[in-house]
Design a protein that fits this description.
CATH superfamily of the largest domain: Response regulator
CATH class of the largest domain: Alpha Beta
Number of domains: 2
Radius of gyration: 21 Å
Strand order of the largest sheet: 7-6-8-9-10-15-16
Largest sheet: 7 strands, mixed
Structural class: alpha/beta
Shape: globular
Distance between the termini: 23 Å
Number of helices: 14
Strand content: 15-25%
Order of helices and strands: HEHEHEHEEHEHEHEHEHEHHHHEHEEEEE
CATH topology of the largest domain: Rossmann fold
Length: 398
């Protein structure tokens, strides 16, 4: 695997030397729009680095649009403030002239940016992390895609794990926004369909200093475990800490927005024994991406592989369409993501660009075994984890 990666990067470096002889295009600009501040700010740097790793690889190859260069510009969507996210997206489109947006991050702001900025301006968005089921049916004129699977699927996976562990009753709290509500509804429906009981399904607000009242209500309802569909840097962490302080719950289920080293570091040993799930794959591409990221000195946290794939898909689609105009390349996103074509893994973007330029087809497998289904949805797979000895350990992939 390392040999294949090394060869791919060596090939990219060799092609870079030939790039000046190619006809230069105006290039492309990608917006990297994530919650650099807000309740998931500890996750955003690694996600951004994943997208920028793909861009760097494309630029090193010299094969993009006749030797053109791709540049990136970051925008802060805050994850929770729709107004701020909309303003940031407008700046990316009007001031920075982006040809596409890798983002946004959280579901609520993603919907706001899509409706208020991307759709009116005809800009493609590929989110690596917005998972609300509501985004599956939103009006998008073929401009919106995502490389993370919908929470409708995550709810089914969570129900399966709880059932397999013999949990019959669980309390559930969710961050009071589109992401939290959609995920909690999905979890409740799937768990109850499997014969389980949700004793309480209660929202919580982010940014509070005291969650004792919320925890008291959850404890009164009872349950063998507390499912926290929240954010690890905000209310979700507060709920867990207040639960531990009061002795209300000892074990927690952690959906994707709660899985990160920052939570483990903040809570410490009392988190041992808790478990959860997040999008992830044990495919060859996932392992290659991890190696590439480590070689670049990047962290490989949740949604970083999805971000690499989102940026790669956008650039390969531009190459396929022969244009950086979103109205022209949007139809090529699914074409490069799915069969038929030569399978492409991380580290092989330069070769993919060359195949496309020569009139061939590619099937971009990427870091997350990419497969786009109807409406630009990711079929997706999940990584089951548990907290043991102060670290996040992989149990299996589903």
């Amino acid at each position: 695997m390392m040999t294949r990666t090394a060869l791919a990067l060596a090939g990219a470096a060799a092609l870079t030397l030939a790039a000046p002889a190619l006809a230069q295009d105006e290039g492309a600009t990608l917006g990297i729009m994530l919650g650099f501040t807000g309740p998931l700010e500890s996750l955003s740097p690694a996600i951004a680095a994943g997208a920028e790793l793909a861009v760097e690889e494309v630029n090193q190859s010299g094969n993009f649009m006749g030797g053109a260069t791709v540049t990136t510009v970051r925008g802060d969507d805050t994850c929770i403030d729709a107004g701020a996210a909309t303003a940031a997206a407008e700046r990316l489109v009007t001031s920075d002239g982006v040809d596409g947006i890798m983002g946004a991050m959280c579901s609520g702001v993603t919907g706001a940016v899509l409706s208020n900025v991307a759709l009116p301006n005809g800009v493609v968005m590929i989110s690596p992390s917005a998972t609300s089921p509501a985004l599956s049916t939103v009006e998008d004129d073929g401009l919106f895609f995502r490389t993370a699977p919908s929470d409708s699927r995550q709810g089914e996976i969570i129900a399966d794990i709880l059932t397999e562990k013999g949990v019959s009753e669980a309390a559930l709290t969710f961050t009071n926004n589109d992401y939290g509500k959609g995920l909690s509804d999905s979890i409740a429906a799937a768990f109850e369909a499997a014969g389980g009981t949700i004793t309480i399904n209660a929202p919580h607000e982010d940014g509070k200093g005291d969650y004792s009242a919320e925890v008291a209500a959850l404890a009164a309802a009872g349950g063998e475990i507390l499912i926290v569909a929240g954010y690890l840097d905000q209310g979700g962490r507060g709920i867990i800490q207040a639960s531990l302080d009061s002795g209300a719950f000892e074990t927690f289920f952690l959906p994707d927005g709660m899985v990160g080293e920052a939570l483990v570091e903040a809570i410490g040993d009392p988190l041992d024994g808790s478990y959860g799930v997040l999008p992830g794959s044990d495919s060859e591409g996932a392992q290659v991406f991890t190696s590439l990221a480590e070689e670049a000195g990047n962290e490989t946290g949740v949604y970083a592989p999805e971000a690499y794939d989102a940026a790669a898909l956008m650039l390969l689609a531009m190459q396929k369409a022969g244009s950086t105009n979103p109205s022209e390349y949007k139809v090529a996103v699914s074409e490069v993501a799915n069969a038929p074509g030569e399978e492409i893994l991380p580290g092989e973007l330069g070769r993919a660009l060359e195949i496309i330029a020569d009139g061939g087809d590619v099937d971009y497998v990427g870091a997350t075994a990419v497969e786009l289904v109807e409406g630009g949805e990711s079929a997706g797979s999940f990584r089951e984890i548990e907290i043991s000895d102060g670290s996040i350990e992989t149990v299996q992939y589903r």
